[in-house]
Amino acid sequence: MSKIDLNLDFDAIRERIDKEKHGIKPSIWADKVGVSRNVVTNIHGSVKQKPSLEYIVAVSKATNKSVDYYLWGTKETNKPELKNDTPQVIVEHQDLIKRYADPVQGKEINEQLIDIQDTDKTLFQSAVSSIKSIWDTAMTIRQVRGKKTASEKNLKNGTDG
């Protein structure tokens, strides 16, 4: 699949978000939008990082202004109320889902995490913490297996590991 050039003016997007954020401390804005303070300071501080699509969507949701307003500055700034049966948009940030061995499973997991995040912030933080713990365990197992494999190779070659 080829990349689509949307010709987005990230400086203008940042300025529109800055108008909404004006006077709000980064930590309070981060809580309102549902991102880390680092994300806010990287985008709105001296670094001036490009805002991700996830961040723009989160700002849109928090401010009740359309994504179109932030992306292109359209005059229609209020989002229409969504019915419960409206499907939620899943954003594949940096091809995260495509990195799964099974992309279908990756999409399902992503959808489940979004449902958890939308249900309860504490539950979501608990899920993220659990995932990080499992990931740490997996990396430890991978390192141990890698060392064991290297040791076995050294034994076969008659060298010390």
Give a summary of the structure in a few sentences.
This protein is mostly helical. It is built from 7 helices and no strands. The chain has a domain at 1-85: Orthogonal Bundle (434 Repressor (Amino-terminal Domain)).
Please characterize this protein's 3D structure.
By secondary structure, the protein is an all-alpha fold. The protein has a domain at 1-85: lambda repressor-like DNA-binding domains (434 Repressor (Amino-terminal Domain)). The protein is 61% helix and 0% strand. It has helices at 10-21, 26-33, 37-44, 53-63, 67-72, 103-119, 121-157. The chain is elongated. The model is unreliable at 79-94 (pLDDT under 50).
Task: Annotate the secondary structure layout.
Blueprint (H helix, E strand, L loop, with lengths): L9 H12 L4 H8 L3 H8 L8 H11 L3 H6 L30 H17 L1 H37 L4
Helix pairs in contact: 2-3, 6-7
Main sheet characteristics: none
What is the helix tally? Answer: 7
Low-confidence stretches: 79-94
Which percent range describes the beta-strand content? Answer: under 5%
End-to-end gap: 45 Å
Provide the CATH architecture of the domain at 1-85.
Answer: Orthogonal Bundle
> What is the general shape?
elongated
Q: What string gives the helices and strands in order?
A: HHHHHHH
Name the CATH superfamily assignment of the domain at 1-85: lambda repressor-like DNA-binding domains
User: What class do helices, strands and sheet pairing give?
Assistant: mainly alpha
| Share in helix | 55-70%
Rg, Å, rounded? 21 Å
CATH fold topology of the domain at 1-85? 434 Repressor (Amino-terminal Domain)
What is the average of the pLDDT values? 77
In the CATH scheme, the class of the domain at 1-85 would be: Mainly Alpha
Number of strands: 0
